[in-house]
Write a structure and sequence with these properties.
Layout: H1 3-12, E1 18-23, E2 27-30, E3 35-37, H2 42-48, E4 53-54, E5 58-59, E6 66-76, E7 79-89, H3 92-100
Antiparallel strand pairs: 1-2, 1-7, 2-3, 4-6, 5-6, 6-7
Amino acid sequence: RQLPVLSSEVARLPQFDLLGMADGRGNCTYTNGAVDNIAKESYFKKAIAGNTAVSDLYFSALDNKLVFAYCVPIKMGAEVVGVLLGRRDGLELSTITDRLGLGENG
């Protein structure tokens, strides 16, 4: 029932190509309607333990795109009940490092 809210947030936050919500078992539903289990992923494990996490670059099982994800715990009171995930294009890292002037220019 939170997916309509998340879908409107994707339009408002163009840096994310997908948002998703995972339950405590890692069952994640994305704003495009796709469903995946992310329980084995280190970023999920960190977030479900109550910490903010950023994934390494990975090829998404949903669409084989190179991406990375930001994850935060969803809490009800003091209890972590799920994870909110924001997925970004992996090539965006090149844009970020180009702005920093790393390499030959930095």
